[in-house]
Fold these 4 entries.
Entry 1:
Amino acid sequence: MVPAVMRILRTQAGVVVFVSALMLALFGWLEARSAFLGGLAGFLPNAYFGYWVARSKGEGAQKIVRTFYAGESVKIIITAALFFLILQLPDILFMPLFAGFVSVIMVFWFALLMRST
């Protein structure tokens, strides 16, 4: 896999652990569990997408674009399915769940900012 993608995925995994630990320290187990599951709902589809796109390395431009769109479509479906499954669990707290998810997604934003400077 591409080193930049691996770096982003490692950072996202670290953010999942950090946000979950912070929720545990500040609020408790239910908040930490919800934040962890939200983080996973962001991380797992991104890991799949990174793997999917890395497979097209060395292919033609048209194949890469097609792979990108297919991978992004599947990533969205996986994300929706994970949220559907998570929301079936008892005692899920919405704010920590979405805080975990958004914190993982924000890694992309900061990665783009760091790259453009």
Entry 2:
Amino acid sequence: MICTIPPEIPKPYCYSVVPKSDLAVTGLYLYDCGVFDVIRTLKPSGREELEITDVNNEYIRQEKMGYSMLDGCLSRCRDV
């Protein structure tokens, strides 16, 4: 999913990475039940972890990756 970065970020050029657009990945992922087949094919990374990026890359390879642009502001989802 993609969300707009608020325009009021002061001096964004001071950050180590200057965004090339006003869009950001929110980290909210929804998968179909085929995700478990993808997970079974993954190998642990150098951190000895299965990486969500590898799942996303496989969906891209299979041309099954999509996205939605959300209107509104970004809020935190924690301590729910």
Entry 3:
Amino acid sequence: MDQAIMQRHLARAERHVTEGEAHLARQRALIRKLERDGHGSRAARRFLRSLEETQALHEADRDRVRAELRIAERARPSTNAFCR
């Protein structure tokens, strides 16, 4: 795969991870508020588990793209004049 495309994939994966962290924080805050105000939080906790599972997928995708980029960079011929 073209390295520029891989860099775009990585940027998108990083954005998904960052956005996911924000979603998780908001959901955890909502659960705390629900519980503090005496409301049930079962559905909110189920949704949190779903968000956590999705976040794990985003992180795995980011890590996979990072690994692919490292492999591609090692395989790319060096442009350093001293390595010729």
Entry 4:
Amino acid sequence: MDNLVRTLIDNPAQTADTSARDKLDRQRLQLDFTQEGYNRLLQVKELADARSNAEVVRNALRVYEWFLRQKKDNYRLQLVRDDRVRDVELVL
């Protein structure tokens, strides 16, 4: 299992929290959203029970990075419910 996935699964709080040392190494980033995009951010924040918009963006970036690495290694994405399997193609 990929280390990033293992970290997300085993200790999601660790990925959201940063140490005091990490805070010194941070870079500020300002993002501009359309109203629709901002509403989506707020919805995801609520669904994820995230403490901040920054936490949502950091976690989304981790998942997106993992997805791109899996895609590069020719893995497929599937949704599984009970005994049904559905292939999913994300076009990003």
